[in-house]
Every structure is written in structure tokens, then in C-alpha cells.
Automatic annotation (TrEMBL):
The keyword Endoplasmic reticulum applies. It comes from Danio rerio (Zebrafish). This is alpha-1,2-Mannosidase. The keyword Endoplasmic reticulum applies. Its main location: endoplasmic reticulum. Pathway: Protein modification; protein glycosylation. Belongs to the glycosyl hydrolase 47 family. It catalyses: N(4)-(alpha-D-Man-(1->2)-alpha-D-Man-(1->2)-alpha-D-Man-(1->3)-[alpha-D-Man-(1->2)-alpha-D-Man-(1->3)-[alpha-D-Man-(1->2)-alpha-D-Man-(1->6)]-alpha-D-Man-(1->6)]-beta-D-Man-(1->4)-beta-D-GlcNAc-(1->4)-beta-D-GlcNAc)-L-asparaginyl-[protein] (N-glucan mannose isomer 9A1,2,3B1,2,3) + 4 H2O = N(4)-(alpha-D-Man-(1->3)-[alpha-D-Man-(1->3)-[alpha-D-Man-(1->6)]-alpha-D-Man-(1->6)]-beta-D-Man-(1->4)-beta-D-GlcNAc-(1->4)-beta-D-GlcNAc)-L-asparaginyl-[protein] (N-glucan mannose isomer 5A1,2) + 4 beta-D-mannose; N(4)-(alpha-D-Man-(1->2)-alpha-D-Man-(1->2)-alpha-D-Man-(1->3)-[alpha-D-Man-(1->3)-[alpha-D-Man-(1->2)-alpha-D-Man-(1->6)]-alpha-D-Man-(1->6)]-beta-D-Man-(1->4)-beta-D-GlcNAc-(1->4)-beta-D-GlcNAc)-L-asparaginyl-[protein] (N-glucan mannose isomer 8A1,2,3B1,3) + 3 H2O = N(4)-(alpha-D-Man-(1->3)-[alpha-D-Man-(1->3)-[alpha-D-Man-(1->6)]-alpha-D-Man-(1->6)]-beta-D-Man-(1->4)-beta-D-GlcNAc-(1->4)-beta-D-GlcNAc)-L-asparaginyl-[protein] (N-glucan mannose isomer 5A1,2) + 3 beta-D-mannose. It is found in: Endoplasmic reticulum. InterPro entries: 6hp_glycosidase-like_sf, EDEM1/2/3, EDEM3_PA, Glyco_hydro_47, PA_dom_sf, PA_domain, Seven-hairpin_glycosidases.
Length: 778
């Protein structure tokens, strides 16, 4: 089959986008061997594919069994989320229009995953149960991408199945009719002087009607106004009514006109009445993301070069100001050399996928690798993370953008490394988000706590991209290369502009008449990078240990420095020790590993192991405060000592009742040598003085001696929690999974209270627990 947009582009741009098109759409993925030693056998792939299907069934059936016809599943409560019956969550609830959102959003996923019986049944349910005229205020953007897009994608699939002559023979374009009705119900939003749409509309009463309870807003986000063209144009072309495409196009035109002419960037929020920018920060994530995506894809779907030219202009600006590989940082649109914040949001994870479409693989690989490192550290992409890859906002609502980019990079490079990345997404979802009634969003990636929500995009997008990643083309019920994904991953046919042309002209060139430009415009990774078959790996390697996760310990944490040793060789060593730096003579390191000693070691050269004992917690990342509560008589819970946590050992926030035990001093008190009082320590909580060796080393020794917990006491005289912020103890750079007892830290003043209590009463029982669960507080 001809892919018209590709041949069209060949004429227009001399092959740049042909490259991307061919990479993404038409090149069969060669069986390339892994460049990271990560090749995956067909059996392994198919096992993961089955796993994804099983997970989809679990999520979908949970929604159907416990929630349908409600908009969303509440996976912790095992019931549906009905707007008005649950506490109002603010803007998030504007997606919910009492129109069985999740089922509509999932329809074309059912087809792609070959669940054709379920699809047929679901379409009948939608036709029977769904009303689109509820008296409810919904987000225009969300309703467009999820519901209008969902109906159109499903209509396209229904039509394909019907054409094949077996299924859906009863289908009479009912989904398209519903899409058209919904389109009309969204149109009142465009009743502004600028042409930019209101952010919300009442499905029954529109915007101006006094009963509408909306229409007072003055602002909308750039993505909200600029993410309509694909669905609206498809609706126009499929229904024959041009009004939808006209409105969406107008909104795109306004955004383009309002770009900052110096930088060619747009802001995040715009006034819908006068077109002034309300928020002038500019990035590729939240608030703007899919505006750029839709410029590129509007060109692909509709063949209108204007969109491509605009995209290219913005793209150059993004690469000039926002892209700081591997980072993508928001800047001020008027002063774009200034970063406006030091954190990134998870929505920008779609951008490498868009860069693949643009044919710009290098920065796509770099940013994707950075994102992968973040997921390795936190299991999922937190909603926002700092430039140092620490959590800025810990929520993770099961967003699909990282899976999306992973799929596109795999399509483009054929590098099985991306299958491994996909596998890690699958495993983490199962390990950290799966619950008996579906999959639950993660409230905070640091604690792993769940939230009672499973957004519809999880079924609409996540499962499509994961399933596609592990499927061969021949295993799919449709030729995926004939479709473009909307921002919600709904499938629209790239043949749209030629089979159902627009009534609008505005300079669009007619489709090309070349026969098959593909055959010579289909570069594989090898054609593109002939002398460098390990292209993607070479790029990734530079970013492998951004976050420190997975770093080979010996190689990176041990560095050689020259110490001016005196005859005894003790002074600098002791000095460094007092600073918390442990030293290992190179002779020991080398003989342990190879048996040969390099020259330098005999001259007193040490390998210096620099291991921070405490983590630097960024301002906004809170350390969960713990307490040591003295509960035995005469204290009876009245003496409470503020304590700091450790990043390793038992997580006290997950122990409902904390950990209780009698305290006992370790001998030696620093616990840096063999423990001498193991019998006394058995079953007790050990007290150990900070210093001389690492916390992890002390913890291991005391755990082995039978202690059920450790309280570390600061060795710096006079320190107290009143004067010094709490910090988290970290491990010693080695894996710490073996340490399973709880660990807390007391500054010396608090420690002195505890040791004084022990001295006076001998038997002192304490409870270690998070401060917020302090006993008897209420
Ligand atoms: C989806 O609804 C769409 O991808 C949208 O463009 C923004 N992201 C959410 C999922 O994260």
C-alpha cells in the first residue's frame, strides 16, 4: 500500500522526514543482535507479550467488572469513580463526563490486542449505554483526545473489521455518529473572539447558557488549544462537515501567530480572549507537549506543509534553547537563555518519540536514556524530578509516555536494548502497581504507596505501546504502519487526506504521484550509520550512570589519589577517617582482585574510596521524620526523641505499629570491630556511636550479632535535631539488601537522653516509628 504522506514529504523536504517515516513506519526490524549484550530470543519476546496480554486482561476486566459504566476504575476500592459521588479532585475530574470514559478510550486497544469479541461487545455497550448530553462540565482537551479520539479510532477499526466481511457486519457507523454529536457539543467552546477555545464546556448547555456553570474562564493551556486538529480534522473528513477542522485550524493559527518572534517559542498558558501569554515559561512537557506533537502529526495526517514548517521552526527553537542533552529544561520564552526551573516533568517523556518521528535520533536516544536512569532509580518516572534526578513531585499516575518513546526508539533503531527497557516497564508495573482490582497509580514513588485511581490512558496508551513493542508486524490484526497515533494513542489512518480530502485548500499541495519512493527511502540503522552499527549504544553509554544506579561500584567509586604519607603513614589516614572517609591501601584492593601490585602502591599511593555517609536531600525532598519513643516505665511514651531515617534497612513507614525492643549498647560502642556482647544484644535494639566506619558496616555487624534494630548516635558533641535538619543515612556504595533491620539516627543531645535513661533504668523499651504515628499523640 502507498503511504501518501511519505511520498508527499519526499517532494517537499528532500527526504528528511522520509528518513523518519521510513525508520518508524516502513523498515522491517532486522533481527539485530543486542549492542549491550541484551539480545532477546523470539521465545522471550513472546513470553513478555503474553504477560502484557494477561496484564491488560486484569486491568480491563477489573474496569468492566467493578466500574463500568462509570468513567474510571478505583482499583483500591474496587468500584467505579462517579463524578459527584467521590470527593472532588479538582481539574483531574474534568475528564469525567459520565460517558464511560475508560471503555471508549480502550476500544481500539481491544482491536490492536486482537480482542475482537470484546471489541464487538464493547461497541454494542457504548451504543446502548453512553449519553453524550449530560449536564456536566468537562475539559475540552481531555474530552477531545480521550472520547472523540476514542470514538474515531474505534470507528476506523470497526470499519476495517467490517470490510473484511466477517465481524461487525451489523455496524452502521454508529460510533462516527456519536463522534459527530460529541464534536457539536464541544463546538461552543470556540465561541471566543480569538478563536482559542474555552478550556471547559458543559456537554448539555455549552458555554454561554446560564445553566452551563462554565464560560467564566479567561485562560487555557497551549496544549489544550493546540491538541485538537487531528481529531477535529478526522471528524470533518469522515463526517463531511468542515466546521470542526476549521475551528481546530484557527486555534493552531492563533498559537502560531502568538509565538514569541525572537525565540520562536510559545508559553504555557494563554488568554483566550486577547491572546496574551499568561505564563511565559516554555518547555516541551506539561502545558505545551502535544501542541508540538500535533503540528508534526497534522502534517503527516493531513499533508499540509504549513504544519510541518511551523513544527520545524519550533523544533529548531526547542533544540536551541530547551534541549540541553540529555535534559529538556523550561526557559522563559522572551529570554530563552535563562532556565526557569531546575526540574523536569514526566510528560516530556513523549518527546524522544516525537524526535524519532522528526528523524533526530541522537538527542532522542540521549533523553530517553536519561529517563531510563530515572526509572531505574525510582521504579517509575515521578511527575517531576530535578536535574539531579531526585524526586520533585513523587506521584506517578501510570503515565505511558516513557513506554511510547521506548517503542518509537525500538522501531527506529531495532536495538533490542529497548526491549529490555520495555521489559523493565512491564516488571515494575506488575511489582509496584498491580493490585487485586487492576493497577493503581503510585502516590509517591519514594514510598510506593498507592492511589485509588487508574486513569483511562493506562488502557488506551500503555498497553498499546507495550504490546506493539513486543509484537512482530505479522502478529497484529492491522498494518500498524498505515496509522498515526493521536496523543492518546488512538489510531487514525494516514490515508485520510487522500481518501477523504478536506474542502479547505490553503496552499496544500495535492498528493504526490510517485509510485513507490519507499523502496529507496527506507534506510535502516545500518544505512544511516554505516560505520557505526553500535550507534545507539555509543550515544547511550555517555549517559549510563547519570543517577548512579547500576554503576559498577569498584570502577566508579574508587579513585586513585596520591597522599603525602609521612613515615608512619598514619596522620593523613586518621585525618581522613575523622572526616568519614575510609581508606583501603591499593595493595589490598589489587591483591584481592588480581594478585599483582602495581609500582605506585609501594610508594604509598592509596585508592581513596569516597563514600558519602548521608544523602544530600534537596530542599523539596522531605526526609520522613522518625522517632524513638521510650515506652517502658517510668517514661510510658512521654519521652519522644526525634530521629532520622536510613535509605536502607527496614522501611519503618511501612510498619503499621513500628518496631519495639529493649535497648542495649554495642561493645565496641562504634560497632566497627567484632561485636563482643552478642549474647546481650540478641533480640534487642543496639545503640552504636557514629564514626570510624560506615553506618552500613555497623548495621551488618549488629544484625549478625542478633540485634533487631540499630539506633546510631551522633559522635559530634552538642548536635541536636533542634539545630540540625534531619538527614537520611545511606549505604556504603555496595548493595544493602542484606540489611533488614530498622535503622534510625539520633543527634548527640537526643542520644544522651537515651543513654542516660539506660544508665539509670537498665531496662528501657523503645518504639521506633514515623513521627506522625507517635503513640498517644492524640
Ligand atoms: C494522555 O492523556 C495524553 O498522552 C496527553 O497528551 C498527555 N498525557 C496523558 C497521559 O499521561
Amino acid at each position: 500500500m502507498r503511504r501518501n504522506w511519505i511520498t508527499r514529504e519526499t517532494r517537499a523536504c528532500g527526504g528528511l522526514v522520509v528518513t523518519l517515516a521510513a525508520l518508524v513506519i516502513s523498515c522491517p526490524l532486522a533481527e539485530v543482535s543486542g549492542h549491550d549484550g541484551q539480545a532477546m530470543t523470539p521465545e522471550e519476546k513472546s513470553e513478555i507479550r503474553d504477560q502484557i496480554l494477561e496484564m491488560f486482561d486484569h486491568a480491563y476486566n477489573s474496569y468492566m467488572d467493578y466500574a463500568y459504566p462509570a468513567d474510571e476504575l478505583m482499583p483500591l476500592s474496587c468500584r467505579g469513580r462517579v463524578r459527584g459521588l467521590e470527593p472532588n479532585r479538582g481539574d483531574v475530574d474534568d475528564s469525567l463526563g459520565k460517558f464511560s470514559l475508560t471503555l471508549i478510550d480502550t476500544l481500539d486497544t481491544l482491536v490492536l490486542l486482537n480482542k475482537l469479541d470484546e471489541f464487538e461487545e464493547a461497541v454494542k455497550k457504548i451504543m446502548r449505554d453512553v449519553r453524550l448530553d449530560n449536564d456536566i462540565v468537562v475539559s475540552v482537551f481531555e474530552t477531545n483526545i480521550r472520547v472523540l479520539g476514542g470514538l474515531l479510532g474505534a470507528h476506523v477499526m470497526a470499519d476495517v473489521l467490517k470490510q473484511r466481511g466477517q465481524r461487525m457486519q451489523w455496524y452502521r457507523d454508529e460510533l462516527l455518529h456519536m463522534a459527530k454529536e460529541l464534536g457539536y457539543r464541544l463546538l461552543p467552546a470556540f465561541n471566543t473572539t480569538s478563536g482559542l477555545p474555552y478550556p471547559r464546556v458543559n456537554l448539555r448547555y455549552g458555554v454561554v447558557n446560564p445553566l452551563s456553570r462554565t464560560g467564566t474562564e479567561s485562560d487555557t493551556c497551549t496544549a489544550c488549544a493546540g491538541t485538537l486538529i487531528l481529531e477535529f480534522a478526522a471528524l470533518s473528513r469522515m463526517s463531511g462537515d468542515t466546521i470542526f477542522e476549521e475551528h481546530a485550524r484557527k486555534a493552531m493559527d492563533v498559537l502560531w501567530e502568538k509565538r514569541q518572534r525572537g525565540s520562536d517559542l510559545v508559553g504555557t498558558v494563554i488568554n483566550i480572549h486577547n491572546g496574551d501569554w499568561v505564563r511565559r515559561d516554555s518547555g516541551v512537557g506539561a502545558g505545551i507537549d502535544s501542541y508540538y506533537e500535533y503540528l508534526m502529526k497534522a502534517y503527516i495526517l493531513l499533508g499540509d506543509k504549513v504544519y510541518l514548517e511551523r513544527f520545524n521552526t519550533h523544533y529548531s527553537a526547542i533544540m536551541k534553547y530547551i534541549s540541553q542533552p540529555p535534559l529538556l529544561l523550561n526557559v522563559h520564552m522572551h529570554n530563552p537563555t535563562v532556565n526557569v526551573r531546575s526540574w523536569m516533568d514526566s510528560l516530556l517523556a513523549f518527546f524522544p518519540g516525537l524526535q524519532v518521528l522528526r528523524g533526530d535520533l541522537k538527542p532522542a536516544i540521549e533523553t530517553h536514556e536519561m529517563l531510563y536512569q530515572v526509572t531505574k532509580q525510582h521504579n517509575f518516572l515521578p511527575e517531576a524530578f530535578t536535574t539531579e534526578f531526585r524526586v520533585h513531585w513523587g506521584q506517578h499516575p501510570l503515565r505511558p509516555e516513557f513506554a511510547e518513546s521506548t517503542y518509537f526508539l525500538y522501531k527506529a533503531t531495532g536495538d533490542p536494548y529497548y526491549l529490555k527497557v520495555g521489559q523493565s516497564i512491564v516488571e515494575k508495573l506488575n511489582a509496584h502497581a498491580r493490585v487485586p482490582c487492576g493497577f493503581a497509580a503510585v502516590q509517591d514513588v519514594r514510598t510506593g504507596t498507592h492511589e485509588d485511581r487508574m486513569d483511562s490512558f493506562f488502557l488506551a496508551e500503555m498497553f498499546k505501546y507495550l504490546y506493539l513493542l513486543f509484537s512482530e508486524k505479522s502478529q497484529l490484526p492491522i498494518d500498524i504502519d498505515d496509522y498515526i497515533f493521536t496523543t492518546e494513542a488512538h489510531l487514525l489512518p494516514v490515508s485520510l487526506s487522500t481518501t477523504q480530502p478536506s474542502c479547505l485548500t490553503n496552499g496544500t499541495e495535492p498528493p504526490a504521484h510517485q509510485d513507490d519512493l519507499f523502496s529507496y527511502s527506507c534506510p535502516s540503522a545500518q544505512t544511516l550509520f554505516p560505520n557505526n552499527p553500535t550507534f545507539a549504544k555509543t550515544i547511550r553509554d555517555g549517559y549510563k550512570y547519570l543517577t548512579g544506579v547500576g554503576r559498577a561500584q569498584q570502577a566508579s567509586s574508587v579513585r586513585g589519589i596520591e597522599l603525602p604519607l609521612h613515615d608512619t603513614g598514619l596522620e593523613p589516614v586518621e585525618f581522613l577517617k575523622s572526616m568519614g572517609i575510609s581508606l583501603t591501601p591499593l595493595t589490598e584492593l589489587v591483591s584481592a582482585s588480581q594478585g599483582s601490585v602495581p609500582q605506585d602502591s609501594q610508594k604509598g599511593v592509596f585508592k581513596l574510596k569516597l563514600v558519602a555517609e548521608v544523602s544530600q536531600t534537596p530542599e523539596h525532598e522531605e526526609v520522613v521524620p522518625l522517632i524513638v519513643q521510650l515506652i517502658s516505665p517510668p517514661f510510658l511514651g512521654r519521652t519522644v526523641l526525634m530521629a532520622g531515617p536510613a535509605k536502607f534497612g527496614l522501611d519503618l513507614t511501612k510498619q503499621e505499629h513500628g518496631v519495639k525492643g529493649r535497648i542495649m549498647k554495642s561493645v565496641p560502642y562504634t560497632a566497627c570491630g567484632p561485636i563482643e556482647n552478642t549474647v546481650e544484644l540478641q533480640g534487642h535494639i543496639a545503640l552504636a556511636l557514629r564514626g570510624d566506619c560506615m553506618f552500613a558496616a555497623k548495621a551488618r555487624r549488629l544484625q549478625e550479632a542478633g540485634a533487631i534494630g540499630v539506633i546510631f548516635i551522633d559522635h559530634r558533641e552538642g548536635s541536636s535535631s533542634a539545630e540540625t535538619p534531619l538527614f537520611q543515612m545511606v549505604g556504603d556504595g555496595e548493595p544493602t539488601d542484606d540489611i533488614t533491620v530498622p535503622l534510625v539516627f539520633l543527634f548527640s543531645k537526643e542520644g544522651a537522653t537515651l543513654t542516660a535513661a539506660l544508665q539509670e533504668h537498665h531496662n528501657v523499651d523503645v518504639l521506633l516509628l514515623p513521627k506522625e504515628r507517635q503513640l498517644g499523640k492524640d
